Amino acid sequence: MSEQPRAVCLLSGGLDSTTTFAVARSRGFEVYALTFRYGQRHETEIRAARLIARRLGAAEHRVVDIDLRCFGGSALTSDMPVPKDRPLDELSRGIPVTYVPARNTIFLSYALAWAEVLGCFDLFVGVNAVDYSGYPDCRPEYLEAFERMANLATKAGVEGGRKLRIHAPLISLSKAEIIRTGLALGVDYAMTSTCYDPSPDGAACGHCDACLLRLRGFAELGLSDPARYQTPSASKP
To answer: In DSSP terms, which residues pair with 84 in a beta bridge?
Structure first.
């Protein structure tokens, strides 16, 4: 019997990365979860990632400390205000201030290094280009370019006899479709933390871009969002 293949999955603690973890597991991978404490505004998503990795059965979960606050340039790594209550049709116009410069490139590079050590050739990332196309590092052409680079720049890619692959199973799904996929795989979205600006106890604001997109996804399915919100009525469809 062949050994179960390994994969590294970027796990932020949010809805998309949790669904991606569940998809990787459903495809038969032994999943190694990688989370970053990168100077973001809160620890809520890191606590969520630890819980998710444990409940979904990660083979190993590592939380890596890096500090992107030294560069700033984002509402998530500075005191810049997080946008609230923007019309949904404006969310994909331009690059929002919640974009963290080069974040996915940095995260995927760490994931690539760990994958080489683990002897695995598959990386999973929960990026999406449908509901939130404003982030340049969430586009299919970016992932294709990174995959080409990975196979040029690593010992595993050059000598491993196999190609490294970047899997983005949610790339073309709407938020509602992502939620439906996760529910079919048994994901409990009450564990996840999506909000850009939660309260100290982890309750979501219900007004930032991430909350608005998440709430719309549940509403389109006729479901209440099981996450905690500062205003409980915000989770209702």
So the answer is: 208
Strand partners, 63: 35
CATH class for the region spanning 6-235 = alpha beta
Domain boundaries, the chain: 6-235
Q: State the amino acid at position 18 in one-letter form.
A: T
| C-alpha dist (Å) from residue 167 to 15, 108, 124 | 17, 11, 5
Q: Is 89 exposed, middle or buried (0-12, 13-18, 19+ CB in 10 A)?
A: exposed
pTM of the predicted model over 0.90: yes
**CA–CA separation, 2 vs 27, rounded Å?**
15
Query: Tens digits of per-residue pLDDT, 153-191?
Result: 888 777 777 899 999 999 999 999 999 999 999 999 999
CA dihedral 202, 206, 208, 209 (to 10 degrees): 120
> pLDDT digit string (tens) for 42-56?
889 999 999 999 999
| Nearest Cα residue to 202 out of 39, 18, 44, 11 | 44
